[in-house]
Amino acid sequence: PSSKFYGVSIRKDRTTSKIWRAMFKYQNIKYNLGYFNTEEEAAIAVDNKLIELGYLKKLNFNRNLEEFIKM
């Protein structure tokens, strides 16, 4: 199962309230960022990690990068 966002998928077993998984692979390294309550929260976590890595091509949200730098 997938999401409309890059790096986000729905948890198969759904035994917990945190069902949205944030995970992606970049330069042959898998980044598992955890599980989140909403699809959007997971997408934001992915975006934050992508910005940290300097890989801006796959961002889920078009936001001002200065906003992320302040976080």
Structure in words:
The chain contains 2 helices and 3 strands, in the order E-E-E-H-H. By secondary structure, the protein is an alpha+beta fold. The termini are far apart.
Brief summary:
With 71 residues, the protein is of the alpha+beta class. It has two helices and three strands, in the order E-E-E-H-H. A hairpin with a 2-residue loop joins strand 2 (20-26) and strand 3 (29-36).
Give a quick account of the main beta sheet: strands, pairing sense, barrel closure: 3 strands, antiparallel
- Give the N-to-C terminal Cα separation: 30 Å
Radius of gyration equals 12 Å
- Helix proportion range: 25-40%
Structural class: alpha+beta
- In N-to-C order, the SSE pattern is EEEHH
Low-confidence residue ranges:
none
Number of helices: 2
Fold topology:
Layout: E1 8-10, E2 20-26, E3 29-36, H1 39-53, H2 65-70
Antiparallel strand pairs: 1-2, 2-3
Considering the chains and any ligands shown, give keywords for the structure.
71 residues, alpha+beta, three-stranded antiparallel beta sheet, 2 helices, 3 strands, 30% helix
